[in-house]
Amino acid sequence: MWIADDWKDYELLDCGGGEKLERWGRQLLVRPDPQAIWESKRENPGWRKAQGRYYRSAEGGGHWDKEKLPEQWQMRYRDLTFQVKPMNFKHTGLFPEQAVNWDFAREQIQNAGRHINVLNLFAYTGGATVACAAAGAQVCHVDAAKGMVGWAKENAKLSGLGEAPIRWIVDDCAKFVEREIRRGKAYDAIILDPPSYGRGPGGEVWKLEDSLFPFLKLCAQVLSDKPLFVILNSYTTGLAPSVLGYMLHLLVAEKFGGKVTWDELGLPVTDTGMCLPCGATGRWIAV
Fold first, then answer.
1. What distance in Å separates the CA atoms of residue 37 and residue 66, rounded to the nearest whole number?
2. How far apart are CA 111 and CA 283, in angstroms?
3. pLDDT on residue 51
4. Is the pLDDT of residue 202 over 80?
5. Contact present, 16 and 36 (Cβ < 8 Å)
6. Assign residue 286 a region: left if phi > 0, alpha if psi is -120 to 50, beta otherwise?
7. What Cα–Cα distance (Å) separates residue 263 from each residue in 45, 130, 236, 247?
8. Region 117-126: what's the mean pLDDT?
9. What is the pLDDT of residues 80-111, one digit of tens each?
10. What tens digit of pLDDT does each residue of 214-272 get?
C-alpha cells in the first residue's frame, strides 16, 4: 500500500462503523467511508465534537450538518496550499491520499533533467496540477466542470503558481484528447483520475468499467516519443489495482518499455495504527 503519511494539516484520527473521523486543519469532520466496515470503540472525543458531519440518506445522497464549520478554509501540504470546503456527496475538494502521487510526480519531473509537459485529465481542483507545476512542469489541466477548473486556478494562486505555465481547459476529456491527437500535440506525462460515473458538458456518459480501457488507449496516442510517466487512479471499489497495472502494461509499456507498478492508496489511522484503503493507482515510468 502506498501511504500518504507526510501530512501536517490533515489527519485521519479514527474510522469504523462506515465512517471516518478526520482533522482538516483545525476542523474535525465525520464522513461516511464504505471501506471502514469494522467496529470502532469511538473513544476519541472528536466523534462527539466534530464541527462538520455528513449524513447519508436512505434514498441516496445525503446532507451536511455544518453549522459550526467555516464556509471554506485553507490546507497546506509541503509548499502547496489548497482551499477546501464541504461539498455535495461528502467531498471537500481534496483527496489527501493522492499526496503520494503528487510526491511521485514531482520527483519524476525534478529528476528528468529536461522540460516536461504534463496532461492532467479529470483534473478536479488541481492537486496534481499544482504539484507538477511546482516541480517546474508545463501542465494542461482538463475537467468538464467549469467550477472545478475555477477552484483549481484558485489553488494555483494560493500556492504561488498563478503565473505558472498551466493551460486551463473546460471540456469533455475524451473529446479534448481526440482534438489533441488531430493537432499533433504530445505530452511527456499523463495523469488520469477518472470518476466511476459521470457526464460530460454535452451529456456524454462515462462509466468506468466500459470507458476506461478505450480511453487509456486513446490517451496513449498523445504520449511523446520519450514519455516520462503515466498515473492512473481509480476509486471504483470493485476494480483491483492490478487491473490498472495490466492496462498500463498493454497500452504503454509494450510500446515504450519501462516499468509498471500498482497498489492501493492508504491513509494512516492515528488511533489504531491501521491504514484505511482509499482507492487504487497504477503507475508507468520510463526506466
1. 24
2. 17
3. 96
4. no
5. yes
6. beta
7. 33, 23, 14, 14
8. 97
9. 999 999 998 899 999 999 999 999 999 999 99
10. 999 999 999 999 999 999 999 877 789 999 999 999 999 999 999 999 999 999 999 99
Q: What are phi and psi of 77, to 5 degrees?
A: -135, 115
Q: In this structure, are strands 166-170 and 138-143 parallel, antiparallel, or unpaired?
A: parallel
Q: Which amino acid is at 243?
A: V
What b-and-e string marks burial along 205-240, b requiring 16 or more CB atoms within 10 Å of the CB? ebebeebbeebbebbbebbeeebbbbbbbbbbeebe
Query: 6-45 pLDDT, tens per residue?
Result: 999 999 999 999 999 999 999 999 999 999 999 999 999 9
Which ranges in the chain belong to alpha helices (H)?
46-49, 99-110, 127-134, 146-158, 173-183, 208-219, 241-248, 254-256
CA distance 91 to 201: 21
Using a 10 angstrom Cβ sphere, with 0-12 exposed, 13-18 middle and 19 or more buried, the burial of residue 176 is buried
Radius of gyration, CA atoms only, the chain:
19
Q: Is residue 130's pLDDT more than 70?
A: yes
The pLDDT value given to residue 143? 95
The DSSP letter of residue 60 is S
Contact 124, 94 (CB under 8 A): no
Cα 178 to Cα 35, 172, 215, 227: the distances in Å are 36, 10, 10, 19
